[in-house]
Amino acid sequence: MRQAPRNFWVTDMRSIWVLLTWLVLLPLAPLRADESLTYPRHSRGAEPETYVIELLQLALDHSTRNYHLQATSEPMNQARAQLSLEHNQAEIQVMWAMTTREREEHLLPVRIPIYKGLIGWRVNLVQASQPNLLSRARTLNDLKSIRFGQRHDWPDTALLRSNGLQVITSPSYEGLFGMLAAGRFEAFPREVVTAWQEQARAAENGQALLVDQHVLLHYPSAFYFFTSKQRPELAEEIRLGLEASIADGSFEALFQRHHGATLRQVKFAQRQIIELQNPELPEATPFARQELWYQP
Questions:
Q1: In terms of domains, do 39 and 84 share one?
Q2: CA dihedral sign, ordered 288, 290, 293, 296
Q3: 140: how many CB neighbours lie within 10 A of its CB?
Q4: In the chain, what is the straight-line distance between the N-terminal and C-terminal CA atoms, in Å?
Q5: Are residues 114 and 142 located together in one domain of the fold?
Q6: Is residue 3 situated within a structural domain?
Q7: Residues 69-87: tens digit of each pLDDT
Q8: DSSP H helical segments within 26-172, as ranges?
């Protein structure tokens, strides 16, 4: 029997190996192109931050990669989320929070303010039986007899205390509404973009709370997306996606759809604004980019 030439045999075997390798790797290609990004679930009830999730998805939609966004199966507080992200653990890949010097030392911020700076404009939830609690407040000193509620791991807790205010804390976000309703403290400062929705959910739970109509607390602040410092490419993907959504107007459209009506409800000009200091605000906060900030 005549044997095939050696060169033909070698060439044929190489072709077979190339084909087999391609067939093995083909099913894996989509897995390399896609990535699941997990963020910390805020609470067991209705998600109070749907706007932030939609904004993150909007940024990712501008990416060249296909990301699948999902929440953790159980709620995760900020302290635990930050620690997990700091060590680049598999349970989460992205979180959002108010920036501080300490947080930016351990995590990688995407320095585009999610709420356009409105995270630092606060109205107070109060008991329905005390609608005029803050009606005579004009200065920071007028607030020092009032007990304010906050979660123990929120940066606002240290900020309020650094301004000389009394703060009662809880490890539970949901528990704060019950504590206010029960009189454990008198006022619960909330972001102007979430306060009315939170008041409505409290009413559904039988908690008689109102949004105070007299005072606005203000301190310079920014709410960012954060990633692990070991994932700079992910932070850059989110940054580029946010920049693209700012450029094409989709960021502003989403912001107005979620918050436009609420911001008209705030009536900034009719309130007494009390300024607070934020000693933990990083110097790199991009205040020079006026298009990133809401101007009341």
A1: yes
A2: positive
A3: 15
A4: 91
A5: no
A6: no
A7: 999 999 998 899 999 999 9
A8: 29-33, 50-61, 78-86, 101-106, 155-162
Pull the structure tokens for residue 7: 């060169």
Query: Do 190 and 256 sit in the same domain of this protein?
Result: no
Residues 189 and 242 in one domain: no
Q: How much is the pTM?
A: 0.80
- Cα dihedral: 208, 212, 213, 216 (round 10): -160
How far is Cα 238 from Cα 235, in angstroms, rounded to an integer?
5
**Per-residue pLDDT tens digits for 174-224:** 999 999 999 999 999 999 999 999 999 999 999 999 999 999 999 999 999
Place of tokens 């070991």: 230
Whether residues 114 and 229 share a domain: the answer is yes
Locate all alpha helices (DSSP H) within the chain, ordered by sequence. Answer: 6-25, 29-33, 50-61, 78-86, 101-106, 155-162, 173-181, 195-204, 232-247, 250-266
Has residue 1 been placed in a domain?
no
Do 63 and 187 lie in a common domain? no
Does residue 196 belong to any structural domain of this protein?
A: yes
Diameter over CA atoms, the chain = 108
Can you give the residue range of the structural domain that contains 148?
119-218
Q: How many domains in the chain?
A: 2
Buried b (16+ CB within 10 A) or exposed e, 188-218: bbbbbbbbbebbebbeeeebebbbbbbbbbb
Whether the CB-CB separation of 222 and 111 falls below 8 Å is answered with yes
Structure tokens at 136: 């005579």
Strand 188-191 to 121-127 pairing: antiparallel
